[in-house]
Specification:
Chain lengths: 652, 147
């Protein structure tokens, strides 16, 4: 911080004092803007990780659902595992690719196999024009990619040199503009311009398939210079919830299902990581104190289908359980799930956990290794764990991604761990920069940042902060309204005098406990509730200006609230059951699904209420419910005129 | 008598929580430390407006014996609590700020041009390198200044 004494000769000390006053005010103003920006980011991150944790907790439930409801899927799977691999590949090609014709009327890009860099250019141009690649080519590309990936080891070893620097990119999450930006700034992949893409290519953004295709095509053209590492979102169960499945089914209405099927397998063949110059480990998430790179080099990675399909327990694993200090699989009150799965299909538990750690862990400043309670999978690893593991394998640095950072990258653990994140404006316009790293042996890594913005980048900082802040507050309020009943009960319990008011402390306590989000509630309170002149909170104002739209008038509000709260989960379950992706679910399926769901979640909703609702939703009375319509019916209405306004009179 | 003490304890407890919240938001590694360069932001976000000189002294107070570039929460908390309790470094009242602008506007035009403001902000007093980024000022300043 600057601390210049009064070295300037200026006529009139009044002017000097004035300048000092204005500077002081301005610093305070900037600081408050910065703090608001950080609060918004904290909200986005907490909610994102809480969602992921919800996913992980559902793992046994989902696998049970798949076992018992997706019987079609299971039979297919077993048949496939029984036939010879080469036969299966031939069958795949026939089933997947050859049966689909590309009509003459198709105006999109046409790829020529074997692929060359011309095809990369063709695709980039086409995607810039927002064209959609025909399913035939998508399938052919994915099929070929899977074939080549199968030959790759679990870890790719790469060497750099002054004439051949390596570029490392982090999460892209379907943000095509960011990939274009990277190629624009850093050049297209080639033998002299190698890249590592460190996972999470898909989900959330709206061009996941385009990114995946560009990366796969580049990989097929330059298999030794374009390296793909698996991220935690390269997982078909994650895709069900976080948008990729929806994107595919929307863009490829006819052949989407086939694309999804081949993706399931392709993901599992993605390498686990890259090792650069024998000294830098590049993986998506992180490590744990038990990370065993030698073991990871040897496991059959293709058996790790999804993080949400936990492995079988063997007797052996019971002993290792007590040693593990991490969140692994949770089992419901009914004990182990009986499965018919053969042991060929799945990894043993300790190997599965090794991969979970690599894909899900986050570095933290505290020494030791702790369960990653934020996400529900993997661990938090401290600087001591980093030192231990890096030393064990004679490595100097760990490069990972998995977490959004405001500057696009962050260095921690004494320079030994670098986080690289390549999706700019990930949460909201203006939320963060994206970045990539260039590595060359013998020199320090170089960082390059960018931010893809449109018109809003020319807005003043104050406006950008406001945009981000209101977006964060909006999604937070949606959380709040989805827990209205529980929150109201908690507030009333504390409100002994039935005054409708609580202290700020009491209100913050309830919010944190019910929502399970570790947020700076006191600092955020002015955006979320009304506070009287004594500093007390009118707690019911937590729910003002927002309500859940009832799909049908007769539906009971508690039921509506519950269904709204679990709509993402219900969507996943539904998608898992709906193996022909017809979008329809029968009444019995709906009732059976709801029964299981409510038992698992201990949701106390009357069966008859649910039946009534299902009946009401069966709009054409044919015994089936269009689930997408069902879900769309539950949405939240914000009264826009009452959302946070930029506070013009407030000088900061 | 006991009431007064209780009330004081409650106030202090509330300040502690508030300070912890502001601190944690900048504690990126979740190990109860923040980069020393963020301390000014944290203090100001809590409503105190020390001058650069005063901030410099505060940092010296909360730093380690051998400065590490990081400030620990345990050292920061008592200092910040006292600042809040004593209502030190209160922000400038609006009318004073307005008069400050008026002082610089010697010709009494009701505005300052962008160049003039840049000159005053970067050449006088305790200059701040980011002062030149005037886009960050509010649209309607007290004088309705030009952007």
């Amino acid at each position: 911080s600057n601390c210049f004494s009064l070295t300037f000769i200026f006529c009139g000390s009044a002017a000097l004092k004035a300048a000092l006053i204005i500077q002081n005010w301005y610093r305070g103003y900037k600081a408050r803007l910065k703090a608001r920006q950080h609060y918004a980011l904290t909200i986005f991150q907490s909610i994102e990780y809480a969602d992921e944790q919800g996913q992980m907790q559902l793992s046994t439930f989902f696998s049970f659902m798949l076992e018992h409801y997706a019987h079609v899927h299971k039979e297919e799977l077993e048949l496939r595992n029984q036939s010879l691999e080469s036969e299966q590949d031939m069958q795949d090609r026939h089933d997947y690719v050859d049966l689909i014709d590309v009509p003459d009327s198709y105006n999109g890009p046409r790829l020529q196999f074997p692929l060359t860099c011309t095809d990369i250019d063709l695709l980039l141009e086409a995607f810039k024009e927002q064209q959609i690649l025909h399913a035939h080519y998508v399938l052919e590309v994915l099929f070929e990619t899977k074939k080549v990936l199968k030959q790759m080891p679990n870890f790719t070893h790469v060497q750099t040199s002054p004439s051949k620097e390596l570029t490392i990119c982090g999460d892209l999450h379907g943000k095509l503009d960011d990939l274009f930006m990277i190629f624009y700034k850093n050049g297209l992949p080639s033998e002299s311009n190698p890249y590592v893409f460190n996972g999470d290519f898909v989900d959330r953004g709206k061009n996941s398939i385009e990114i995946l295709i560009i990366l796969c095509v580049s990989f097929l053209v330059y298999p030794n210079d374009l390296h793909l590492n698996r991220g935690n979102h390269e997982d078909f169960m994650m895709n069900l919830r976080y948008g990729f499945t929806k994107e595919i089914l929307h863009k490829y209405k006819l052949h989407g299902k086939r694309i999804l099927q081949i993706l399931e397998e392709l993901y599992a063949w993605l390498p686990i990581g890259t090792i650069v110059d024998n000294e830098i480990l590049v993986i998506h998430g992180g490590i744990s104190e038990t990370t065993d790179l030698n073991l990871l080099h040897c496991i059959e990675r293709n058996k790790m289908k999804s993080v949400l399909i936990p492995p079988m327990e063997t007797d052996r694993d019971y002993d290792t359980d007590s040693k593990h200090n991490k969140v692994g699989v949770t089992f419901n009150a009914h004990g182990r799930i009986k499965t018919n799965r053969s042991s060929i299909e799945h990894l043993p538990k300790h190997e599965w956990e090794q991969i979970i750690d690599i894909l899900w862990s986050d570095p933290r400043g505290k020494n030791g290794c702790f369960p990653n309670t934020g996400r529900g999978g993997g661990c938090y690893f401290g600087p001591d764990v980093t030192s231990k593991i890096l030393n064990k394998y004679q490595l100097k640095m760990l490069i990972r991604s998995h977490e959004c950072k405001p500057e696009g990258y962050e260095i921690c653990h004494d320079g030994k761990v670098v986080t690289i994140f390549s999706a700019s404006n990930y949460y909201e316009e203006g939320s963060n920069r994206g970045a990539y790293i260039k590595l060359c042996s013998g020199t320090a890594p170089r960082f390059f940042q960018y931010q893809v913005t449109k018109a809003t980048c020319f807005q003043p900082l104050r406006q950008r902060v406001y945009t981000m802040e209101s977006s964060a507050i909006k999604i937070l309020k949606e959380r709040v309204i989805s827990r209205k009943s529980d929150l109201t009960r908690a507030f009333q319990l504390q409100d002994h005098r039935k005054s409708g008011k609580l202290s700020l402390s009491q209100w913050a306590f309830c919010m944190e406990n019910i929502l399970g989000l570790n947020l700076p509630w006191r600092s955020l309170s002015s955006n979320l509730v009304n506070i009287d002149k004594n500093g007390n909170v009118e707690y019911m104002s937590s729910f003002q200006n927002i309500h859940i739209e009832k799909p049908v008038q007769e539906a009971h509000s508690t039921l509506v609230e519950t269904l709204y709260r679990y709509r993402s989960d219900l969507e996943i379950i539904f998608n898992a059951i709906d193996t022909d992706h017809s979008g329809l679910i029968s009444m019995e399926e709906f009732r059976a699904m709801w029964k299981l769901f409510s038992a698992h979640y201990n949701v106390l909703i009357d069966d008859s209420q649910v039946n009534k609702l299902a009946n009401l939703m069966d709009l054409n009375k044919d015994g089936s419910i269009d689930f997408n319509e069902f879900l769309k019916a539950f949405y939240v209405v914000h009264r826009y005129e009452d959302l946070m306004k930029p506070n013009v009179t407030n000088l900061g | 008598m006991a009431d007064e003490k209780d009330r004081q304890e409650i106030i202090v407890a509330e300040f502690h929580k508030k300070i912890k919240e502001a601190f944690e938001v900048f504690d990126h590694e979740s190990n109860n430390t923040v980069d020393v360069r963020e301390i000014g932001t944290i203090i100001r976000s809590l409503g105190c407006c020390p001058t650069e000189g005063e901030l410099h002294d505060l940092i010296a107070e909360v730093e380690e014996e051998e400065p590490t570039g990081y400030i620990r929460f345990e050292k920061f908390l008592p200092v910040m609590t006292e600042m809040l309790l004593e209502r030190r470094y209160r922000p400038i009242p609006e009318d004073v700020l307005l008069r400050a602008f008026e002082v610089l506007d010697s010709a009494k035009r009701g505005f300052l041009t962008k160049d003039e403001l840049i000159k005053y902000m970067t050449e006088e007093g305790a200059p701040h390198s980011e002062m030149a980024a005037l886009e960050n000022l509010p649209r309607k300043g007290p004088l309705g200044k030009t952007m």
